[in-house]
Amino acid sequence: MAKIILGLVGTLASGKDASKKYLEKKYGAQSCRFSSILRDILNRVDLEIKRENLQKLSTVLRQTFGEDLLAKAITKDASTLNSDIVIVDGVRRMTDIVHLNTLSNFFLIKIDADPKIRYERMKIRNENVGDDKKTYEDFLHDQEVEADREIPLVMQTAKYSLNNDGTFNELYAQLDKLINDLKNK
């Protein structure tokens, strides 16, 4: 079987991480995440890991070294991982998919869920400092910032779509069907 590379694009707290973890556990997939590079830098320079810092760092890096800097790094990472299934988590810009589309067997997967459901999930997981204290309006505003502005456009280009309004098991069933369909292409 040829390597399958899945790019996950979705709105904030739509289920990208849950999908990635499931694919890693069930299928032995390996993954790379756009924000990992940014988190590594913030840790190294002893700055707090919060959305605002991640966004500022991303903007500075891309403005200084090119809009496709992170996309080039992730595309290289995805191509060199030694796994039958590779997940690229956090695709959010058109420049990201330009580079990823150069990889054979790359498939862009859209994951979405109702905004109220996503808001509750974001608060519970509290991935970034202060997420658990955000209002629904703050949550909606977070999706309008520069770092997330292109996500809806990128989502429109996805060939495959998953709806995560339901349970984990319902999401997992969609992922199993997707993997089966891609393996049999």
Distance from first to last alpha carbon: 10 Å
| Biggest sheet record | 5 strands, parallel
The CATH class label is Alpha Beta
Number of domains: 1
**Can you count the helices?**
9
Structural class, please?
A: alpha/beta
Low-confidence parts lasting 5 or more residues at pLDDT below 50?
none
- Tell me, briefly, the overall form: globular
What percent of residues adopt helix (DSSP H or I)? 40-55%
Per DSSP E runs of 2 or more residues, the count of β-strands stands at 5
Question: How are the strands of the largest sheet arranged?
Answer: 2-3-1-4-5
The H-and-E topology, N to C, reads as EHEHHHEHEHHHEH
CATH superfamily: P-loop containing nucleotide triphosphate hydrolases
Q: How is the CATH topology named?
A: Rossmann fold
Mean pLDDT: 92
Instruction: Kindly provide the radius of gyration, computed on alpha-carbon positions and rounded to a whole number of angstroms.
Output: 16 Å
The proportion of strand residues reads: 5-15%
Q: At CATH's second level, what is the architecture?
A: 3-Layer(aba) Sandwich
Description:
The chain has 185 residues and is of the alpha/beta class. It has one domain: P-loop containing nucleotide triphosphate hydrolases (Rossmann fold). The protein is 52% helix and 15% strand. The chain has nine helices and five strands. It has a five-stranded parallel beta sheet, with helices on both faces. Helix 1 crosses helix 9.
